[in-house]
Design goal:
Rossmann fold, six-stranded parallel beta sheet, about 10% strand, disordered C terminus
């Protein structure tokens, strides 16, 4: 678990710097929240379906999503499972039961309830649906609709809230006057667990307990992890504009989940500095290799813009496709293509 936390930390450091160098357009880090990712992921079954927000890269790493897959997604290459259509860090994997991330807040909550209810109607009782979100997303109407539907339908879904203190630039004291997010579950008749989100093993235990309850009772449960977003909300944000640097440094020095796990391992004789240095060096090496490979990879074929929405292209998309072909035939050289090939002639993404 600690190795995966280190790998996630190195991934964030390298790709944050890559964005600042203009090599990718956008990135979101998980600094300060590594324990919520790995602790939860380790307690969830691979057959459980994940509906994530946009700060759950560690869950994917634990499930087996590779560093090259993450790099190709962030660079939007022809090897990106999403074919370059999503913003960076908006991962998805059918193989790993991880629904593709979207940017709008809270849309995944009612979707997760629908998925859980469909599993229940199909008689599948060995797995659950897990929905990750931040406390800021709990201010959206979809949050309340999702909890109410899950309660009345008794859907086997875990609502996993990362309460990291800030919804972009809005601190929790300006978001609500109640007792966090866990306190809201009771109003809908839903069991809840609140846990220290910077304690790796506590997150694991809480997630395991919630999952067992959901499996046994076929009812929803809310887990709220109390953590801290040590990094900026995204590379489009400067958190020092709305919080003091001293506040960030205090959290990093006193409650950083990596330091806490390191202290635990050290107390049990399972850690030494040479071992950690080797793990960090190896993780950074693998991340840099993945970044270098994806940066020079070819982009997806333009024809794929029109695929995967309908089984058979409807008239309006056929017309748009023809407009695009005509446009590229006339102005294709301005797009940096060596030779323009009309969309309907693409056979392989590698042609681009």
């Amino acid at each position: 678990m600690y190795k995966n936390m280190l790998k996630l930390n190195n991934l964030d450091k390298v790709f944050y710097d890559a964005q600042r160098q203009g090599r990718i357009s956008f990135y979101m880090t998980s600094f300060g929240e590594e324990a919520t990712h790995i602790g939860a992921a380790a307690a969830i079954d691979q057959g459980d379906t994940i509906f994530a927000q946009y700060r759950e890269a560690g869950v994917l790493l634990w499930r087996g999503f590779t560093l090259p897959q993450m790099a190709h997604q962030c660079f939007g290459t022809h090897e990106d499972l999403g074919k370059g259509r999503q913003m960076p860090v908006h991962y998805g994997s059918r193989e790993l039961n991880f629904q593709t991330i979207s940017s709008p807040l809270a849309t995944q909550l009612p979707q997760a309830v629908g998925h859980a209810y469909s599993m229940k109607r199909a008689g599948k009782k060995d797995n659950i649906t897990v929905c990750f979100f931040g406390e800021g997303a709990a201010s959206e109407g979809d949050f309340h609709a999702a909890l109410n539907f899950s309660a009345t339908l008794e859907a086997p879904v875990m609502f996993f809230c990362r309460n990291n203190g800030y919804a972009i630039s809005t601190p929790v004291q300006d978001q609500y006057r109640g007792d966090g997010i866990a306190g809201r579950a009771g109003g809908y008749g839903i069991k809840t667990i609140r846990v220290d989100g910077n304690d790796l093993l506590a997150v694991y235990d809480a997630t395991e307990a919630a999952r067992n309850y959901i499996i046994e009772n076929q009812k929803p449960c809310v887990v709220e992890t109390m953590s801290y977003r040590a990094g900026h909300h995204s590379t489009s944000d400067d958190s020092t504009r709305y919080r003091a640097v001293e506040e960030i440094e205090k959290w990093q020095s006193t409650n950083n989940p990596l330091i806490r796990v390191r202290n635990l391992l050290q107390s049990r004789g399972l850690w030494n500095q040479d071992l950690e240095d080797a793990e960090n060096n190896e993780a950074r090496k693998l991340v840099l290799e993945a970044l270098t490979e994806a940066e020079v990879a070819k982009k997806p074929a333009v024809s794929q813009l029109f695929q995967d929405v309908y089984d058979v292209l409807p008239k309006h998309l056929i017309e748009q496709q023809q407009e695009w072909n005509d446009h590229m035939a006339k102005y294709g050289e301005h797009y940096g293509l060596e030779e323009f090939v009309p969309n309907d002639q693409y056979k392989d993404p590698a042609l681009m």
